[in-house]
Structures
1.
Amino acid sequence: MICELDRLLLERTYELGARGIGNTSPNPPVGALVARGGCILGEGFHHYAGEAHAEVNALAAAGDARGATLYVSLEPCKHIGQTPPCTQAVREAGIARVVIGALDPTKHGGGADELRREGITVEVADDASARELIEVFAHTIESDRAFVALKMAMSLDGYVTSRPGVAEWITSEEERLFVRELRVACDAVMVGAGTVRVDDPQLTVRPPAQRLRQFQRIVVCERDAVPPDRRIFAEVPGYGRTIILAPGGSRARFRGLEAVADVIYVGTQEQELDLAHALRMLRARGIYSVLCEGGPTLAARLIVLGLVDRFYWAIAPLLLRSEAAVPVLAGVELNGGPRRVQFDRIERIGADALLYGRFLDV
Amino acid sequence: MICELDRLLLERTYELGARGIGNTSPNPPVGALVARGGCILGEGFHHYAGEAHAEVNALAAAGDARGATLYVSLEPCKHIGQTPPCTQAVREAGIARVVIGALDPTKHGGGADELRREGITVEVADDASARELIEVFAHTIESDRAFVALKMAMSLDGYVTSRPGVAEWITSEEERLFVRELRVACDAVMVGAGTVRVDDPQLTVRPPAQRLRQFQRIVVCERDAVPPDRRIFAEVPGYGRTIILAPGGSRARFRGLEAVADVIYVGTQEQELDLAHALRMLRARGIYSVLCEGGPTLAARLIVLGLVDRFYWAIAPLLLRSEAAVPVLAGVELNGGPRRVQFDRIERIGADALLYGRFLDV
């Protein structure tokens, strides 16, 4: 039985877990706390891959935890990795009961059953918030490519800008702060070549995020190279060299960029970038999650290829309709009729509307 | 001083007032109740123009109201119209205190000051919900044309249909039920000629709404006539003949429709419909509020001309992007750069997102 107090304390573990977002990759962010008789004895979260797990930090903070309940956002592990198994730490601490937010999605699972066999009471809430916290991690287990979150912003009538080649901020300050949070939560931020040519973004966050290592910056060149004098290639303290994804058959055209960027050639013969292949290469380099910030061509291609795992779609309070206006998706047709979408959340953010969701049928 | 109980009872008057929506035009919907010591003695609302006002109905239901408080969504009137002034009824009933949701927006105002002079305590909440209830009425006072609410529905990428000439339901059942509510609340429902040609809607509600008189149905023909065999021209029990708004200089082209519809010729020489003039003519015929259900051309024209007073913009969970897809606004350019919009409310409705708001800069 999970009571109201249990739910409250579980919610707290999600807050704690979220503090690790951006640093734990490829591990998931996890939060934990130890409580007895309604009092929190100690709290902890997973800081960095290779360091102590959340449960171990919470138990250390609690001191004497005999007979207490451990609340943890994700099922404790039973495997020996870079640190000893958490099930062992739980048992040794004399914990009587464990309340879990979400089960471990890995093939061999976590240690819930093992704890039960030890006579410890185990409850599993299977909360949506707990699953959201490990969404990228769960994807990492099932897929061999980087997780892709797509961030778009359009006017109420469906355009990103009033004419091609014009950089315009159409969303509110609050929405841009939200994008900053999204960037900081991912291993990398990605834009298309068109965005680099037109908007010329730096793709950093100011002030720099409290991360052990800043997110990487990626430019997707589906065909042609971009000018090397763009701001994204300028050195910024704390940030690594920008990555360029280029088609492997076009090395000559990208040679000039090798001085300012880390050019990854995808495939060998291709004149056009194989996006799925590129995302697999990113994952192989330790980039497990990517925030794609458009533009319309790259977004449409990713959607058509079924490579978007989650979207954040902002609607700015203005109309941009004109013959020259650039629609939010461009360049490719969505073959096979309408593509279904699911809205997970609908919110106001500043003066804008923000729709969270995912594409179905992919 | 307005206390929490006052606010609760005022909210109740808005609920009561809303029961009259669709029947009170050109009067506003108004709700009222009489309470003493936290007990509601009687409730009432304004049913139909020409019949008793909400205050009078509430006082009648209350019986002995001496020393009681009257709660009313709109400031009581002081004028002699089709019924005696409400201030007189309030005074005669021995009401000690009056709590008002919104002030009367008419030029000479309502009876709040008059009541104060009689020694009655008067409090004014000036609530957004109270003002929303009289939005059409307030517009009616300030403007000489019908109030226009615009209802649009588009895909997440900004299209109303995947190709021209195709009628598709893109929104959810819940969203369509909501549109039914909107239709019932207005004096008339209006569509463009393109919608009649392609979607061929009947524009009725099933089951028929509990209204004294059904809303009218209007087809806007900006230039060309529509075929007379469309469903909107078929007789439906309870509904009047459909109105056609036609340019006054094109009588010959519309003559054939006079057998099936009530054709209003706007102006005398014009080959193209003057929409502002048409809305003035509607108001002169007693149509004070119109729900425009698109399509893209009529919507864009109304927006460009500054003739939309409120919008309901549904976003359906699908993508329709293709070269043939029809954008949500079409046919005209929004001159003078981006047009600003304000979102008043952002909600989920079924599987869709629904944005309520108004266009600024007009």
Note: The interface with chain A takes residues 154-159, 162, 170, 300, 303, 313, 315, 317-323, 327-329, 333-334, 337-343, 346-348, 351-353, 355, 357, 359 of chain B (CB under 8 Å).
2.
Amino acid sequence: MAIRLGQNRYGKSRVRLLRATRHDGWNEIKELTLAISFEGDFETVHTKGDNSKVLPTDTIKNTVYALARKHPMKSAEDFAMNLIGHFFSKNEYVSRVRVDAVEDLWTRILVDGKPHPSAFVRAGEEKRTALLDGTRDGVAIRAGIMNLIAMKTADSAFEGFMRDAYTTLKEDRDRIMATSIRARWLYDGMAIAFDSTWEGVKSALLEAFAGHKSESLQHTLYAMGEAVLAKFGQIREIHLSLPNKHYNLLNLSPFGMENPAEVFLPTDEPHGLIEGTVQRD
Amino acid sequence: MAIRLGQNRYGKSRVRLLRATRHDGWNEIKELTLAISFEGDFETVHTKGDNSKVLPTDTIKNTVYALARKHPMKSAEDFAMNLIGHFFSKNEYVSRVRVDAVEDLWTRILVDGKPHPSAFVRAGEEKRTALLDGTRDGVAIRAGIMNLIAMKTADSAFEGFMRDAYTTLKEDRDRIMATSIRARWLYDGMAIAFDSTWEGVKSALLEAFAGHKSESLQHTLYAMGEAVLAKFGQIREIHLSLPNKHYNLLNLSPFGMENPAEVFLPTDEPHGLIEGTVQRD
Amino acid sequence: MAIRLGQNRYGKSRVRLLRATRHDGWNEIKELTLAISFEGDFETVHTKGDNSKVLPTDTIKNTVYALARKHPMKSAEDFAMNLIGHFFSKNEYVSRVRVDAVEDLWTRILVDGKPHPSAFVRAGEEKRTALLDGTRDGVAIRAGIMNLIAMKTADSAFEGFMRDAYTTLKEDRDRIMATSIRARWLYDGMAIAFDSTWEGVKSALLEAFAGHKSESLQHTLYAMGEAVLAKFGQIREIHLSLPNKHYNLLNLSPFGMENPAEVFLPTDEPHGLIEGTVQRD
Amino acid sequence: MAIRLGQNRYGKSRVRLLRATRHDGWNEIKELTLAISFEGDFETVHTKGDNSKVLPTDTIKNTVYALARKHPMKSAEDFAMNLIGHFFSKNEYVSRVRVDAVEDLWTRILVDGKPHPSAFVRAGEEKRTALLDGTRDGVAIRAGIMNLIAMKTADSAFEGFMRDAYTTLKEDRDRIMATSIRARWLYDGMAIAFDSTWEGVKSALLEAFAGHKSESLQHTLYAMGEAVLAKFGQIREIHLSLPNKHYNLLNLSPFGMENPAEVFLPTDEPHGLIEGTVQRD
């Protein structure tokens, strides 16, 4: 039985970049970390050590910097489109180019209540993401958010679940629900207002999380996905990955105390993990 | 030459806690992670295995939860004061109690532009800290902030420095300056408005960072410390630890391009580290 | 256009476990961290908030502990098989159960050169992994290793690659090659000597890495995969993910020094990433 | 009340370095990450923006690479001594130079049971450390180890401790004890066989941990420190920092099962933390 190469890819990860734009003292910045990978006809690279079809990953990195200089950087999505176009035009052996971008978010420092023209502070713990998957036939664009940490102290229940011999969990009409939202959504086409849509989806996710009468984290996941699809017609589907970051009510009865939903133990180990896609039919 | 026990301490770290307060549907939350340590007369614990003077670290943890239930939690500083008072009153062998608190910051989710009564989102990547160092003679209270990430794209120079045989750095009148601010300040006494002062110091640090005509990160460190001491009479001294998170201008000349302060390489390895205390005479 | 639930799963992650086995003073330990997920008929959980088909993730966790007590724990693979069998027998709505195990490795402390019967030290930075993917039709068993960090200072070249306008990399017949090996391999069937095979694969990977005359990391990836398949007939395919952890030769000419492959700058940002599957035809 | 600069220092952190040494096909490697800091007469740097006394941190980094080329690298301690000597000879304003080194440990890959001449694998999760604190009067040399993870499943008790209203911990004659050893020891003078002493201290720490009849982690800390001082006359004192990484016996009685010290829950949050110095009188 012969041995052969199966699916494979190569590229450069953790390519970091800050792009500053300067207009008469009013500066703008965008900070990205990119992972770029190629698939294609690379069999003999592996089997024969023939590098003639391999663009070095060092060149992939250099291309990021050269193209960042050539083009204004409106959004990670736009920039990734430029990269994919460039790589396909120059590398006939490449059949798929993926660009995975993570953006560190900055906001202006307020001085006397006014946004400073050239000083910035990290906007939040969450990151904006973009994942573009390009073939010779087209590019699928997925935007996303990760590490958006949210909690609600009301309107969250978990009751009526299955029980077996190992079930000790109590029914709860009023628990804390907390998660770190990770979402990725697929756009229909490319003519998207990437920045305003991203802001809109972020708000829709948080508003749905806040307002939902939750029977489970699954139930809330669906409500969040539905809210996004209902509001943004150009989104085809959204995938949500929601860890259930447990805040367990502490039992203070050994100290002769009641605990009327006041003192909780936050814990990350173990955690539930709920994942699902909400999509148009 | 005999062998003996020198300085020693013990305690519990990573004690996590969420305190919720509920007023007719309007909820408040505070999330802390505590490290508590005791010093005292513990020599025979080490040398003889005699545990009769050792309050278990498990009890230290339980005490956190019991006292969180007993007292409203106005601030980490107030809560730590309660803990220290409790431990000294019950443990005659203890001569020093330290409480080191790190607070995860939450803000309300906005729904239709209005703060939600019971749903929250992480406020930022920065953490609020409090370090209380108590002896039988009194308690020193230090508040702080960490992981407050800031950048400026103008008004930062580094020139006129010493040069030796290994110096290759170029003088720069217009570089990017970025750091992750870690500050701790010592209060004069205990009658402090902890929350509003913390907010004020955070703003003062960011405003000084933004507005300073910087000749070096050391120069800006001093300006930041001075701004805080000038504004807050109840602060005796402030210690700042500022990594110089380099954003290096990329050399694009191999690609036939100029780079007029537009495309930068962010890097954390290596980084400068500038640390200093600014204090009243 | 209607909105509906797509692919989804739920479960418990970061379930940690130490299983000790005691034989007349000779103790054995196994430490695992598990992630378990279910797929199945869970649509109304999401869309209606109907929990009647949901086994709580808390119960999934409890089941791990109960079954760890019931069965001797020979290997992560055996234990995961027991878990999958249990969950399918009790939960008719579940169509797929995945168990992802990461094992922290321990070895005995040597005292006077002899293995201690009940004291252990962490064996290495690498982790042993097992991923079992069970449906009603059968279970696919993948074993693996991650974080196995290796370096070679000879027999590594990278030459003859493609060049374009952004290529500045020099050809190199004698570079350092370093990586953090992440491998997963698929077994043919279930009658496998899991422990000895894992040890054998680990050795085969390292020996192939060490002995290969490398023309690229892709070339070495293939040689490593081929070595494993050649030696272990019960392995159908192996997937390797190899970051190229660059050790860049430092240019010391500004200080009037040559650098004959002696002083290198290790860096993780950016890094190449080479991934591929080697399989039987 | 005037404002002034208090204690301050500056330097470069995360300076990474691999030094390879080649002897006719037999290669040796040493990988270090350094943090170097200067104290001295730097007041006007802060208060006036006068950089004339500041050697750039970029030059500090370059110096590491130049000196790594100039000198054979026998140990981190020797290399740090060279750095300190160099910096004092060239920088009259510097009164203190600290070098903090962390070494990633490598061992040779075995091929057919024999150590390979030029291929290496990470030796363990632990790191070797060296901290040299130099003034114009001399250098204090501290060696150390961190992240050395150890566990014992016998000979560990915790009984007879203090109890108060919040104590719920049960006495235990037979618990699991686990920790991540962090140790730093101070040498008497500089004429030390750094490599063999480090190996000896590591063994002595592990052997003492393994063999001790422990009444508490404090008790074992002292035994470990005493064992090192008894064996190595050139060590003046040793500081140990030992987190108590709890492995809690799981209560399986809700499932109708006993748990005779077989199934444990490992947890890092919260953890005890025991710290102490053992020294010669």
Note: Residues 141 and 188 of chain B are 8 Å apart (CA to CA).
3.
Amino acid sequence: MIGAESLVRSLLASGVDTWFANPGTSEMHVVAALDKVAETRAILGLFEGVVTGAADGYGRMAGKPAATLLHLGPGLANGLANLHNARRAASPIVNVVGDHATYHSQYDAPLESDIIGFARPVSGWIHRSMRSDSVGADGARAVLAAREAPGQIATLIVPADVAWGECDGPAPALPHGGPAPVGGAAVDAAAEALRSGKKTAILMRGDVVHGRGLEAAGRVAVKTGARLLCDYFVPRLRRGAGVVPVERLPYFAEQILDNLSGVQHVVLAGARPPVSFFAYKDSPSWCLPEGCAVSVLAHPHEDGAAALEALAEALGAAEAQAAHAELKIPDMPAGALDVLTAAQIVGRLLPADAIISDESATSGLGLSAYLEGAQPHDILSVSGGAIGMGIPLGAGAAVACPDRKVICLQGDGGGMYTLQALWTQARENLDVTTVIYSNRAYVILMFELMRMGISTPGAKAMSMLDLHNPELNWVSLASGMGVEASRAETTEQFADQLQSAIQAHGPRLIEVII
Amino acid sequence: MIGAESLVRSLLASGVDTWFANPGTSEMHVVAALDKVAETRAILGLFEGVVTGAADGYGRMAGKPAATLLHLGPGLANGLANLHNARRAASPIVNVVGDHATYHSQYDAPLESDIIGFARPVSGWIHRSMRSDSVGADGARAVLAAREAPGQIATLIVPADVAWGECDGPAPALPHGGPAPVGGAAVDAAAEALRSGKKTAILMRGDVVHGRGLEAAGRVAVKTGARLLCDYFVPRLRRGAGVVPVERLPYFAEQILDNLSGVQHVVLAGARPPVSFFAYKDSPSWCLPEGCAVSVLAHPHEDGAAALEALAEALGAAEAQAAHAELKIPDMPAGALDVLTAAQIVGRLLPADAIISDESATSGLGLSAYLEGAQPHDILSVSGGAIGMGIPLGAGAAVACPDRKVICLQGDGGGMYTLQALWTQARENLDVTTVIYSNRAYVILMFELMRMGISTPGAKAMSMLDLHNPELNWVSLASGMGVEASRAETTEQFADQLQSAIQAHGPRLIEVII
């Protein structure tokens, strides 16, 4: 057996059976090894941002890592922006980067670069395998590192000679400890705050907003009147009918402060205190109300769900009945197609247990209102703020959950960064409906320009924000990559097309002109 | 005046009048400042790899830097692969990266990342501006650093509060020294080698293969019988009728060794000894024939053209007549459309003084043969080996040289990485004809798989190399971005479409089915 096969088999033994790949010459032995292992699935992306974004979506939904396969430093570099998002989402990813043979680096061939330097800002763990004999064990350790709570990117660099060299065979999985338990003192402190009579909110992130922790939080809320919150960039949130409702904090600093006005104590469960996404003159970066106290129930690496259950118990709420959102399907809207009526239609037609990959940006206005009573679903957001994530993330989520419909809500500006993911949707026949909000502009930047105090931008500045000249045609773009596509200019057209896409299986794209 | 305007004006004072931009919120004051400076041109790319690739093409052709404008760490990350190519090409680029306000970084907002860490592997110079008062002077130093011979990437990080803060005004240009002079000893050593009677080759890279150094090299060759060579990944080569012919070394190690067989001495002018692009089992990395001596006439940062002129003088060849390639326009080919007949048609129709952006990869077979007697032209190659460079590079070259036709020869696999550059071509009405070689495969990887000794790849391995399912439709993709496009399946169709595109002004795309 060669090192490459040992690596593929070791990852499989550790539970990693899905690879998202954009390989080159230095990864050819790994590609050949994927052939030999029937249980391993290999999915090609035509650009590395597709590969890493899909691995993020897979990690968020599968709760275990996929592997990437990237081609040296430049291949890794192309995947870094979505690895940044994945790092912020605490997604588990085994990030495999091929490299020149160990003895070849010294010649500084054109593709030679500082792979570790590129990897460091996004990786929680980095290792360069040096021997075919140990690359399997390195792979097992990479999986363990990726799964370290709450999840992180483990970058494993595999030189070509390590991949092609002979070795004994794969390594077994290493024991995985799970998240750290939360001590009683943290639970007691949170319970005390919640009993104090102060206006209290529980700010949550991670597993606790889509798993059993959410039920416990709901019991605490019913018992104490505490608000349940998550931040705007929450990686994955369970929402809709039958789910304990969590309020998502707004985007802008002044809106966050407004929202939190009167809150005297914030209990953190896997989250950090809210901050402004950007800095603005005369606007705060730190978004807790003055004098608001903070206590940490669970750090991100700790078992927040168990902590919330212990908290409910400590408050005598173990048997309380949490409130759940009621099913409230929006009516079919009248009037023109705009961001609000589009959101209403999405809320109306959303099938049960759908996954929403949300990079709608300014076009997402109104989604929350129409989705809180919709069929239950998971919504995934641009956790790191780097646009170009929505389409790949949806593809990865669809691979992780083949029986669930994925709806990708995508602004046109951000969609252009990684549109190549549509091709992967077509090749793998992924059950994703992509809605492109086509406003032909970086509308968010028009807002931001005004917020920066630049109220009368000239033609040159506007040309940096306006995408009308020429207009993008997303029906052509999607068709060019093998995805069936249509354009909607009225509410009726959008409703018909979305209904049709949801009833069918496989990729569809709808360009919504707004 | 605010810092952002001081920066834009300082760069202009230092000769940088062109910005390739994909800005975000933290760059809005720079965007607004671009408005105020009429002499500065701002060109939007819909993805950062477009921005950096275009800046590379501009730098190679203009011989001076453009500025980029990128959005924090993830924006820089998306541009890194083409910055890797630019670093290998020694292109001068002022790489401006916006950042959070200095006081905001501490809050670790979602977009916060290690910008310097991302920048380090590609940058020759990095600085984070800390005061509005000095950002203009920082800009002037960045230009100086970018122009440091032979050219490099100078990354200037501009926090938002540095951009929006008040300051006194712009900084003047700093004196630029030019390349270092070559000492007489190096010239004497090269002259001695060339007089020794040994079989000698001059291996060249940089200015010397497209400027006056090439004429001097031609005189030396006529006088001494030395071969004139450049490496396969030469950033810019002047070629065609009336030009001193330079042999481009082949791609694979064994071909290079074959080509150099019998050479006893190599004189380096701006180049380094040839090495294999990748390592292979049983194949050498170092590609000089055994026993071949090396002497350095000029290091990359030194004035190679002056050194070659001094060398000609030292050899008594100052008045010699260099040989120039004769005009030999290829005939119109008969037979089917394939990589050879396509190359013949390109050579036949190439207009005088065209610029070729070459990422044809395996489809470029035969180009050299048909182009050496074609109309004189400059050809730009994928200097760092990172694919996804051809379309952006051609766009940047067209901005630098608006009176010259740009022909972009692009493989379909590599083209998908940065296809968004077509939109910029359309918006700016750039005079670029893009030829997509549509073989629906990573053919180079099929070769490489075989070279790696994997002669019978299975279905899963082949699915990583084959792009047939689904087929990309480049006519749809280009049309979706506003570029007029057509498909050629016969030699007649390709010749007609190429002729039409060359006669018109503005962007066109031809999908060549091979």
Note: The longest strand of chain A covers residues 93-99.
4.
Amino acid sequence: MEESKREVKHIVLAKFKEGLSKEEIEECIKQFANLVDLVPSMKAFKWGKELSIINFHQGFTHVFESIFETTKGVEDYLSDQNHVDYGNFLMPQLDKFLIIDFEPTKVQP
Amino acid sequence: MEESKREVKHIVLAKFKEGLSKEEIEECIKQFANLVDLVPSMKAFKWGKELSIINFHQGFTHVFESIFETTKGVEDYLSDQNHVDYGNFLMPQLDKFLIIDFEPTKVQP
């Protein structure tokens, strides 16, 4: 069943500003995760600190992965007031970010 | 069970060079996927074209997501001759790339 379900991943790479405390960063992550409860089209959220072995990560420190069922779902999320408010809270705390969406596809042998 | 299994994601963002044919790009993706059969620590592979609604993806055209169980698994993959050969094949076909690893974590409510 799960294999046939469509999934769009919304990946945010973020570099937090120098000087932010661990608690401030944790609050950003917690509020990001909280959007799952506020935005109907956002189905899941995971995050992780950058753990790269090789130095091709361009200084990004965190990865945020949100799951939607369609690109329309991402669109609804982007325009949702809860997301807009969160963006206004998060952005001033970031040095830089990159956002990319894709639909994970398996290569058939 | 799945929740307790450790997972490290190795994300590659790529921008293919202008002028590559659809077939040449497909061959790059197919050979990337083929590494799952060649490199023991690489557990799964998915890919997708960039589908972003907003323009913060910095020109990257494709996302490649490989799954490992540990960062040691990523390390073994990076030094595996099959991966090295594939990298030598892929890199000249890219305008740019970004590679970042993370361990997807859920935020506990």
Note: Strands of chain B lie at 8-16, 44-49, 62-68, 94-102.
